Amino acid sequence: MPALRTEAVTAGYGRSPIIHDISVTAELRSVTTIIGPNGAGKSTFAKTLVGILKPMSGRIFVGDTETTKLPGHEIPRRGLVYVPQNDNVFKRMSVRENLEVGGFVSKADPSERIDELFQIFPDLAKAKDKKAGFLSGGQQNLLAIARALMAKPTVIVLDEPTAGLSPAYTSVVWEQIERISQLDTAALVVEQNVERALKHSNYVHIFVAGRSHVHGPAEEIAALDLPSIFLGRSVADQPA
Ligand SMILES: Nc1ncnc2c1ncn2[C@@H]1O[C@H](COP(=O)(O)OP(=O)(O)OP(=O)(O)O)[C@@H](O)[C@H]1O
Ligand SMILES: [Mg+2]
């Protein structure tokens, strides 16, 4: 059973749909990435998964639990957490306090989990008493990811976790994403850098104009003429 499964999800703001019939699965211990042009509906899909938007039709499952109609605050408890692109840490709290807040979802003492995460994110361990607002942009993104992991989620949804980062730190963040996906988590990532997505993901969806236009294992997607797909041409139009 996939960690996350959507069946023909259609959603949008107000009455008009922005994304149409999106069927995606994300498996444990793998990275599934959504790429596509600006305005394709990638963030809209992420927001629908986490209950910020409710689907107009279609269904969403986290493991065997249907989350389609659950209120947003219930969804992390069912194992799906979300890291938004911006404003994803409490800047006036220390690194450690940010992680403690992330632990509120579970009733257990957070210290043990914090120690585990400090082993995975040594940069954060070094800065544990610093106010999050004093970290670099890349470190803040890692903190946001670590905070989401406090809940030991089955699925982590990351919206452009590398936006605005230097190429060097982009590599660090992607390496961490690959690493955490190995910890019995499914990572679903929105990424605007196609090369990075292909390099670090197992499975890729290309969204164009609100639809999952083309999808497949990263190696297969890498072999396609992506610029023409981004313009909305179909795989059938590809040169052989
Ligand atoms: N809060 C909103 N209310 C109404 N329309 C919105 C809202 N947010 C986004 N949209 C519209 O939905 C469409 C898809 O936007 P979305 O943010 O999902 O795209 P995206 O693929 O994430 O783009 P980007 O790569 O720029 O982040 C766009 O036409 C956008 O104008
Ligand atoms: Mg977006």
CATH topology: Rossmann fold
The ordered H/E elements are EEEEHEEEHHHHEHEHEEHH
Could you give me the name of the CATH homologous superfamily?
A: P-loop containing nucleotide triphosphate hydrolases
End-to-end CA span? 34 Å
Structure classification: alpha/beta
Which CATH-level-2 architecture?
3-Layer(aba) Sandwich
Helix content: 25-40%
Describe the protein:
The chain has 240 residues and is α/β, with parallel strands linked by helices. The two termini are 34 Å apart. Helix 2 (95-102) packs parallel to helix 5. It has a 6-stranded mixed sheet, with helices on both faces. Strands 1, 2, 3, 5 and 6 form a 5-stranded antiparallel sheet that branches. It has a single domain (4-237), classed as Rossmann fold (3-Layer(aba) Sandwich). Helix content is 32%, strand content 25%. It is built from 9 helices and 11 strands. Strand 10 and strand 11 (211-217) form a beta hairpin. The site of magnesium ion has 2 residues, from helix 1.
